[in-house]
Amino acid sequence: MMRTELLLPEMLLAGGALVVLLGGSFTPRHRQWILRAVAATVCVTVIIAAAVTLSAPANTAFAGSYAVDTGTGVARILAAAGCLLVLALAGDELAGEARESDAYALLLFATAGAVLLAGATDLLALVVGFLLASIPLYALIGLAGTGAGAEAVLKTYLLGALFGILLLLGVTLLSGITGATAYAELAARLPAAPRVVVTAAAVAVIGGLMFKAGGFPAHFWVPDAAQGGTAMAATFLTTVPKIGALLAVHRLAGVLPGTSNWPAVVATLAVASMLLGNLAAYWQTDVRRLLGWSTVSQVGYLLVPVVATGRSDLAQPSLLVYLAGYTVTNVAAFAVTAALPRHRDRTSWRGVAAAAPWLAAALVVALLGLVGTPPTAIFVGKLTAASAAWDGGYAVLAVVVFGNSALSLFYYLRWLVPLYQPWALAPPDRPGRWSTTVAVVAAALSLVGGVAAGLVWRAAGG
Amino acid sequence: MLTVIVFLPLLVAVLLAVVPGCGDTAARRVWVGAATVELALVGVVWAGYETPPPGQLAFAERAAWIPGVGSSYHLGVDGLSLPLMAMTSVVFLACAVYALRERHRPRVQASLFLFLQSVCLGVFAAADLILFFVFFDLSIVGMYAVIAGWGHGDRARSALTFFLYTFLGSLALLTGFIGLYAAADPHTFDMPTLTAENPLAGRPLAGGVVLAAILIGLAVKTPTVPFHTWLPPAHTDAPAVGSAVLAGVLLKLGTYGFVRIAAPMLPQAWRGWAWVIVAVGVVSVLYGALVALAQTNLKRMIAYTSINHMGYVVLAVGAAGLVSVDTVEPRAVAVTGAVTQMVSHGLITSALFLLAGVLYERAGSYDLHAYGGLAAPAPVFAAFLAVGAFASLGLPAFSGFIAEFQVFAGSIATAPVTAVALLGILVTAALFLRAGQALLTGPTVGSAKGFGDLRATELWSVGPLLALSLIIGVLPRPLLDLIEPAARTVVDLLGR
Q1: Based on the domain organization, do A94 and A133 belong to the same domain?
Q2: Are residues A424 and A459 part of one domain?
Q3: Residue B19 forms contact with A (CB below 8 Å)
């Protein structure tokens, strides 16, 4: 049975993207804001539609190839909310630009891809989601039109192609040894399959998904794209695709048999992402690049609850809560950089607190939030993720998570300290209005999400 | 009631920060007003306090927070936390009065200190590990801002060292908390439940690891040797009110954790490690005293005596874990002494740091040799400093004596070898007398010339702190009546 009404949010996103794309061709350049409003309306509608069906019992669509459950529901809300915030952010940067409406259409397409990725319970649906989430990203990064942007696109594209092939290889192996692509059948047949092949396939599929998540070993494009792309693209590609990719890994992990050593694989990727992201962020002076590396380390933390999949009841809710906290906090941090696009070197942020106190406060909340300082939402995410790992027999991962949090504090503080020093040569620029609003709203959401963690947790199915 | 006490300062802090028309003078007064109301509210709680049965808390409030992970909004007080809450309110009020003359961004300062007061009271009132941690961690952020924003000297570096070091400690603490959570069945972060359940009983290895994580976290905050290295620079470069709060209140968050969390929740592991804890306490006492003796910077000297004084607390709680049948009484005395010492040290050290702040404000130096004969131009200052020094070295009739006497009476009766820590008192006496001599006596030379005596705000901030120390020293009963039943409970829990 088709049950198309189950997929209303996905259809809205894809349909909305088409409307914006076509509508953009018929709208004069100074009226393109209309399409931004259309895209924003689509996102709001998706959030409402997803929220309404969140409490409905879990269901599947398209003959079991797509799950409509709490995970998908939360992913829809988060992806659409992330997209909405990015659309608002674009008000400063893109208003009146030549490719304005195209950018909005690409954002909606990529959001639809991320949601598909999150809900896919069939290997082929997974591949479709991967491609739909990837291809608009290349174009989004390229919108910057600068040399650095072009380099970032090329790097992203090549890595995307490479890891896409890796993903397809894993999918081929899995369907080859089981004769099935649906997760339900995989779960039944994989325990009997050869262990080595299953492990190899798991490494390939999870490795391929790491490209979308921006985690080790497919992370190289993230800092470049964060630095070279537009602020809007940087915010989007470090936030929304991760939601889809991490839920996809989580769903796949639920299918793989324990004998295939997938927890060790995921744990290794988690530790490597955390360490590499944090150590590399140390040396960055460009704040956008610093945040880019910081998102790599965040993927490491986000993979920790995935390791506990199937071993702890906390695994899925803690992943979703962490994703919720990460979405708003990361958007807040990037929005601050979007508000002052010419302030790229962290030393040039001197005096910002005096000139723009709200913006500085938002950055303090966002960066301390990324460290995991209470009472922000990421604190609850980190706490429950570490609890899930400990509960699932990986106590060491909990220690690694907190050790890395302490490591990361150093480079975040190096950016925060200049804010409160008096400026040296010239006062800072006037911050963009839209970006400042987004930063403050997102930072406030991060605080509210932490204080009202009980509600978030319940929404995440805990 | 407790919710009001904990969140009222935060509310005022937010209002001060966001209401645009609030002037500097108004902000200073609002701060003093809020701190006075806080003290009055804590007084009301103290007046209405009746010792709860063991394992329960008075004025308890509980609401669901994150039920999915067994964490609730749970507040309550008992004989361990109420004296510390009272001390915290007193110290913050003294700081508010002292800062009435602050010229550097007083509105933000008032807001920040009110925030700090909220989180410090929150730590003492929390009856849930996550709630405890939230407040514990925020105290670090607040203090970092105080040192970095209002300090002097190499403040950025000192503040960063403080932040990184204590943040690392707090993460070790959180790891330990998760260990307790994972061991409890059903999983919970609730402190009374965990205390009653004793989740890691019979699992010495896991218990030892979890205790080690918690102890490291608390030892960094306290601080004990060898985790003390952040403290001297932080104190040297912090503003006077910052130092008073840091030494008076924030250090107690660590020692409070020993008696509230580590010992009652992990009694078996605590007993196993008791000798190590005693040794760390003794080393802290002696090392802190000896290094303080070598200082010529007054503030650094007081900072090292804090390590010495916190050493007595660690020694006492360690001795409380040396369980044998006939030592229940002395061990209870030791724990009572430890809690009394926390209160006493909070009052006296805050007073001393505020006096050191007066010194710096007048002449820009903490160097003992830059002054001489201060008693002539500034008799009140000299008298207060002398009283503070005597109180700090444990002279009878001051609170320090009551505390240290009990610590030693309890510890030595339990383990006679701990008498070696008595040397610490001797060295402290020597160093305070020497410092007093260098600063106050002799002909008036150097920066002491033209030194203005205490102003009203300084008098009325330092004076009450010293007066309270004196009152506790002369009439200790009301305080001890509060602490003793709770100390007895801790010892009983340790005996499980």
Answers
A1: yes
A2: yes
A3: no
